[in-house]
Amino acid sequence: MNNQSNTIRNTQFNNKSDTQKHLASSGFNTDIFERYLSISMWYEAGLNNVEIGKARMKMTILIAVRFNLVSPTILSELYSISLRQAKEHLNKLVKQKLLQRIATHRSVDGCVYICDRQGAKWAEEHMSVTVPFKRYKHPEMAINQNNIMHDLINVFLMLRLLHETSLKDENYYQYRGLMTEVELKRHLATTNIRIADGLLAQPTNEGDINIALEVEHAYKNPQYKEKILLRQLNGIKSGVFDKIFIASQKHEILEDIKRTNIELLETMPTRYNKKARQPLMTESDAELLRNAIVYRTKYCDDLRKLFYS
């Protein structure tokens, strides 16, 4: 991942009101959304070992707090270091009571790391955002074991995307900030909007484009996909996001999702919802989703090599 300076990048991302304007009409607390999107999540390697150590500690804790977990493989890729060095770095933070280590066969590393109370407190002070924390007698209860592989892939992809530079000028990053699934759940859980695996804000001349990331690491049946499409439509109409990136570690999964979505978007406008006394969606709704969904095959091979080889 990219370790370049943020000096030029900051001149591009100086209009923090874009996302606020984008969401205000939908009744969301735009200050909270903007607060998350404003948190710097770019890794900048320092000029000496002291600066490098501080930068890595900051990033590691922020990842663990914002995504709810981190692993040696993630940090090895982000910091361009060996797995051994990544484990040493993480275990040092465990000794400092900033992180907790959880052994699990569901991680490619055989373990994951989550924040400890001191780590949550540190992140809260740094981000100026409330960080809910609950310490479990058995730390493994703090995470969903069934979702570990999915969540690690999501962390990797979100950070990979955030560190991608602009196609027009490599001195700029493509995205100005992110919100994680954990953060989206806190503010969208009671809505009928699809809670994506993450949200990225991409600046344009017309304002921010909010992109929802969906990580699909397993096949889903059409009935479940139908519910997802309806919630994604609500997300677009409400202004929470404009586009949807779908990524996977398998080309076959993406092809299956694309085929299913094409079929559903053709049939859903013709099917009647008896309870609502109207079609499941209109033709214009279907077209809105067709234009919004992007199937990102670019990352399939890297994800498979990193997490499944």
What would you say this structure looks like, in words?
It is a single chain. This protein has 309 residues and is of the alpha/beta class. It has two domains: 43-143, Winged helix-like DNA-binding domain superfamily/Winged helix DNA-binding domain (Arc Repressor Mutant, subunit A, Orthogonal Bundle); 163-308, no CATH class. The protein is 48% helix and 14% strand. It contains 13 helices and nine strands. The protein has helices spanning 9-12, 17-24, 30-37, 49-67, 72-79, 83-95, 117-127, 148-162, 181-188, 222-238, 251-267, 283-292, 300-308, and strands at 99-103, 111-115, 177-180, 198-204, 207-215, 243-247, 272-273, 278-279, 293-296. It starts with 8 loop residues before the first helix and ends with a helix.
Question: Would you kindly provide a brief summary of this structure?
Answer:
The chain is 48% helix and 14% strand.
Helix content: 40-55%
The global form is globular
Rg, rounded, reads 20 Å
**SSE order:** HHHHHHEEHHEHEEHEHEEHEH
Distance between the termini: 20 Å
Give the number of domains. 2
Within the largest sheet, what's the order of strands?
A: 3-4-5-6-9
> What structural class should be given to the helix and strand makeup?
alpha/beta
Low-confidence segments: 4-8, 10-17
Q: Describe the biggest sheet?
A: 5 strands, mixed
Number of strands: 9
Share of β-strand residues: 5-15%
Number of helices: 13
On the 0 to 100 scale, the average pLDDT is 90
Secondary-structure topology with pairs:
Layout: H1 9-12, H2 17-24, H3 30-37, H4 49-67, H5 72-79, H6 83-95, E1 99-103, E2 111-115, H7 117-127, H8 148-162, E3 177-180, H9 181-188, E4 198-204, E5 207-215, H10 222-238, E6 243-247, H11 251-267, E7 272-273, E8 278-279, H12 283-292, E9 293-296, H13 300-308
Parallel strand pairs: 5-6, 6-9
Antiparallel strand pairs: 1-2, 3-4, 4-5, 7-8
